[in-house]
Amino acid sequence: MPDALLAANAEELVGFTLDAFEHYEKGTYFVAAVKTNPPDPDGETLVGMLNVVLSTGQRYFPQPEYAHVADLYVHSDYRRKGIGTALIRGAKTWAELQGVGKLSLDVDAKNKAANKLFAKLDFEESFTSINLVKGIRSEEE
Question: Is the full-model pTM beyond 0.85?
Answer without folding.
Answer: no
